[in-house]
Amino acid sequence: MMFRRNTKVATALAAVALVAAACGSDSSDAEALKLGYLLPETGQLAFLGPR
Known about the structure:
Layout: H1 2-22
């Protein structure tokens, strides 16, 4: 029962953090958001990597 409550609270906090980050200033001096990944290119999980 406590696990469900903690999960709901964590989800709500994550949603609030996402909304707060999206409402940040739009100054032209801000750097672009860079996203990356770390996936294998060989081995059994290679299908997850770049194609």
